[in-house]
Amino acid sequence: MPDVLVIYASKMGSTQEIAEAITAHLCVAGLSVDLYPAEDAPDPIGYRAVVLGSAVYLRRWRRPALRYLRRHTTTLRGLPVWLFQSGPCGEHDASEGIPTPRAVRRLIDRTDAFEPVTFGGRLDPARAAGALARWLSSSKELRGDFRDWVAIRGWARGIAGQLGAGEPHLAHEAGPWRP
């Protein structure tokens, strides 16, 4: 059984790419990792830790991520669980975060998960799904890729360190991991 289960709920692919980068960094650190979309993720029994991330739209997490947390509350309570959320777009500093949605707050209290870290998102007009996303992507201020890959790698490195894994190789410092 792998050490870490990484789960994501993505709408337009940005959160999935963040989860893939986290997975790659944990693997480079020597951990064995399984990566799944939230709707297909297995029960966390047998894993040493869980990382779960969701895109945030209108201050809400994607339903598959919330369902996973609800469905596995008891098992997750006994594991270290790191959460991340992605979505802020624009020139503002994503590290200031966005408020943790109420539904997520209640599940954090039940699972003892760590507070979610917030990463900037990507708004690509070519991938905009839905009227709201198309409207938002028409704004020059919001359109673009606002993910901070250095911060994402640093966060993954911190998780690896807390799990007793080695330092990731510097070869991955140049840019985001791609399959």
UniProtKB/TrEMBL annotation:
It comes from the Bacteria. Residues 5-98 form the Flavodoxin domain. SUPFAM superfamilies: Flavoproteins (SSF52218). It holds the Pfam family Flavodoxin_5. This is Flavodoxin domain-containing protein. It comes from Pseudonocardia eucalypti.
